[in-house]
Structures are given as C-alpha cells and as structure tokens.
Sequence to fold (105 residues):
Amino acid sequence: MERIDNDSDLKLIEVLSKESFRESHLPGAVNIPGDRIRDTIDEIIGGKDEPVVVYCANPSCTASDRAAELLTGMGYNNVYHYRGGKQHWTEGGLPVESEMAAEAA
Fold:
C-alpha cells in the first residue's frame, strides 16, 4: 500500500467491471476490465518499463492475477499485483473514490 500511496509515476489499474469501478475504486485508478487489457493497455501505460499495479476486489479474486500474468507476457517489466484489492484497502481505513457519488452531487 505504501508504494501505491507514494509513487506518482505508478499506473493503478482496476480490472473489475465498469459498474464496480463506478461504485468505488482506489484514488487515481483507471478501469480496464480484464478482457480489455490487451486492447487498451498501450493507451494507458507510456512504455513497457513504466510501473503498473493491477488490483481487483479481494484476495480471492483472480482477475488481477490473470491481468498481471497477461501484462508480463506482453513484455511489461514492472507489473505489480495488489493481492488484497479494494477489500484490503478499505479495511485499512484508506479512502476510495466513487463516480456514483460524484454523479449524485
């Protein structure tokens, strides 16, 4: 979590559905559902050496495992997997963002 909080060059990617992302996501994260990574990652990441963290809902969610493996297989060199996901983040008392809250305001 410390690296996520302190590395401004880090690209944070939630690999869950658009609806899940709209409900809540880690601050600064972008949403690329797992089945869209291959098609859209190059638009988000500046190069193969840029640091990227993928995450999903919780430790038992496997979407981020698959995303990390895919990115590594595509030649990305600094791929990190936040295994705890949103559950770990929120249980740690850290803030999340919500597009639904912004839309309601």
